[in-house]
């Protein structure tokens, strides 16, 4: 199988306390199409830096990133966003507060495409947006609500919908349920899993929640001090218990 | 009565500048000091060109274009060279003072030609001060119409998204740098256009006429928001016009009460400060009232 994403010898170095520190320390990682990879790690392990490097928010010090065999290491964020979408941890990071839910969805529908001087055709897309949110009680009938009026959970659900409205080749979830209350977090995680399986998305999800890490995904890696210290496929994952993961923290 | 009509006329014309300022202050979400330089830039450009024999419309067009260039300079400093926006605006504003002096050749110039935008279109035949109202309404209608159309395009939505949440906009592939350029250029273009209009209405241009315009523009925006909170973007543009007229009426009342005209800038700043503080004062008042009720 041709890999979707290949990270080759990725290094990210920062200058900290009079010394060079490798936040990513020679990372090699391959993700195949339809993989649902869960990434675990303590704070400062390099998880978000890894996502930043994949999206192009933060450049690598050395190493390469290939998407579908094509080297995207030097591509900018805008160009990469055509194929890669991301949901941030903070519900406020993923949506425009003074725009309505429908306007946010329309922006996301043209993810990675040039913004033309054409009228935006909001009305023509309302049926599609309505269908998208119809099974979500928290967002139903809220297409014309300004996003700033939504709760954190509603905003994060919208961020997730914005990330998948145009099927991404790679979906990155950066602790996207961490800032939510337990029930909302559970609901969003179940929606996430359902959509990923239904749409056959390739996903890389960072989480701190060990039970989520065990429950979801078909592959699990653990990052520590910028290195991958554990990489389990589905069969290997099935053999371990949640408490076994504690030793890596 | 004549004084009220004159005040309303001033309110209409100055609201055009406030609409320009709205693009940076509310849509892109940062204060742009460039306007204190681009406003007189528009004035000196228009007066110089009319004095040189060009048509008043051409003079206004050039005022708009020069304003756009001023916005470009600030955008370049801010979005390309990472100079903080407040400093970028101050730098351009300072540089524009010399440029305005260069264009005008001296600190101020009167319009000795009998032509201006009002005479050229026969608006001078209207009763006194109504010409400003009619011209103001025509230009405001045109600018609001064009702005609403633009903001409803994909590019316009990208400008709004950039001001609203730059991280999100960038992650959706929006070139936020270009959007900042567009916003700053259009904003300063409109502000300079207003400078050109007001110079023609007053019959002169002065390189110092930009001092305090940011306070006038912000007052119009904030008063509009205080009177009409939580309205859609297109309506907000109209509330700026209302805010501008109300602001002028407040100033008129204050001056009629016998305040010294030298204190005008001080009064303007106090009015703006009060408007900005109004939501907090209202919240504190309601909190005190609620606590008072509970205690009883």
UniProtKB/TrEMBL annotation, chain A:
Gene Ontology terms, MF aspect: ATP binding; ATP hydrolysis activity; transmembrane transporter activity
Source superkingdom: Bacteria
This protein's UniProt keywords: ATP-binding, Hydrolase, Nucleotide-binding
EC number(s) on file: 3.6.3.-
Any Pfam family matching the protein: ABC_tran
Domain (ABC transporter): residue spans on this chain: 5-248
Major enzyme class: hydrolase
InterPro entries membership: AAA+_ATPase, ABC_transporter-like_ATP-bd, ABC_transpr_LolD-like, P-loop_NTPase
GO CC annotations on file: plasma membrane
Record protein name field: Macrolide export ATP-binding/permease protein MacB
From TrEMBL, chain B:
GO cellular component, as recorded: plasma membrane
One GO MF term: transmembrane transporter activity
Main localization (coarse): membrane
Alphabetical list of Pfam families matching this protein: BPD_transp_2
Keyword Transmembrane helix part of the UniProt annotation: yes
Keyword annotations of the record: Cell membrane, Membrane, Transmembrane, Transmembrane helix
Protein topology in the membrane: Multi-pass membrane protein
Subcellular location as annotated: Cell membrane
Residue stretches spanning the membrane: 12-28, 57-78, 85-105, 130-151, 181-201, 207-228, 235-258, 264-281
Protein name: Autoinducer 2 import system permease protein LsrC
Species of the source: Companilactobacillus kimchii
């Amino acid at each position: 199988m041709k890999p979707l994403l290949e990270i080759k010898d990725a290094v990210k170095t920062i200058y900290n306390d009079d010394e060079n520190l490798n936040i990513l320390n020679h990372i090699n990682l391959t993700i195949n199409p339809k993989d649902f990879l869960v990434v675990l790690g303590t704070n400062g392990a390099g998880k978000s830096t890894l996502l930043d490097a994949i999206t192009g928010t933060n450049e690598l010090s050395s190493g390469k990133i290939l998407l579908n065999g094509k080297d995207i290491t030097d591509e900018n964020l805008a160009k990469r966003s055509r194929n890669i979408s991301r949901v941030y941890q903070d519900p406020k990071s993923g949506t425009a507060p003074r725009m309505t839910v429908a306007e946010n969805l329309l922006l996301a529908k043209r993810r990675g495409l040039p913004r033309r001087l054409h009228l935006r055709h909001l009305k023509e897309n309302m049926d599609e947006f309505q269908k998208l949110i119809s099974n979500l009680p928290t967002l139903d009938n809220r297409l014309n609500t300004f996003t700033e009026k939504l709760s954190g959970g509603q905003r994060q659900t919208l961020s997730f919908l914005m990330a998948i409205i145009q099927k991404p080749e790679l979906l990155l979830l950066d602790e996207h349920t961490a800032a939510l209350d337990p029930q909302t977090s559970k609901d969003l995680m179940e929606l996430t899993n359902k959509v990923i399986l239904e749409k056959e998305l390739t996903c890389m999800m960072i989480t701190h929640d060990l039970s989520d890490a065990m429950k979801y995904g078909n592959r699990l890696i653990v990052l520590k001090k910028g290195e991958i210290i554990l990489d389990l496929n589905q069969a290997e994952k099935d053999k371990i218990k949640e408490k076994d993961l504690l030793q890596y923290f | 009565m004549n004084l009220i009509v004159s005040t309303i006329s001033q309110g209409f014309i100055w609201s055009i500048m406030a609409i320009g300022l709205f693009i940076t202050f509310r849509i892109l979400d940062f204060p742009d000091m460039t306007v204190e330089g681009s406003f007189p830039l528009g004035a000196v450009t228009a007066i110089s060109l009319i004095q040189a024999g060009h048509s008043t419309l051409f003079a206004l067009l050039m005022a708009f274009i020069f304003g756009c260039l001023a916005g470009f300079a600030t955008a370049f400093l801010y979005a390309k060279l990472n100079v903080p926006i407040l400093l970028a605006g101050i730098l351009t504003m300072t540089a524009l003072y010399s440029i305005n002096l260069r264009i005008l050749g001296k600190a101020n110039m009167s319009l000795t030609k009998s032509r201006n935008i009002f005479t050229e279109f026969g608006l001078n035949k209207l009763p006194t001060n109504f010409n400003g109202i009619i011209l103001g309404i025509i230009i405001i209608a045109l600018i609001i119409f064009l702005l609403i159309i633009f903001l409803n395009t994909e590019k316009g939505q990208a400008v709004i998204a950039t001001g609203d949440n730059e991280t999100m906009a960038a992650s959706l592939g929006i070139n936020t740098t270009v959007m900042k350029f567009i916003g700053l250029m259009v904003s300063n273009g409109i502000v300079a256009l207003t400078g050109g209009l007001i110079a023609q209405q007053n019959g002169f241009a002065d390189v110092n006429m930009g001092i305090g315009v940011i306070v006038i523009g912000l007052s119009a925006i904030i008063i509009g928001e205080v009177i009409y909170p939580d309205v859609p973007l297109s309506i907000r543009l109209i509330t700026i016009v209302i805010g501008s007229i109300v602001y002028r009426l407040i100033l008129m009342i204050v001056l009629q009460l016998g305040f010294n005209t030298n204190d005008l800038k001080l009064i303007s700043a106090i009015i703006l400060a009060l408007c900005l503080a109004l939501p907090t004062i209202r919240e504190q008042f309601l909190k005190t009232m609620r606590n008072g009720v509970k205690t009883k």
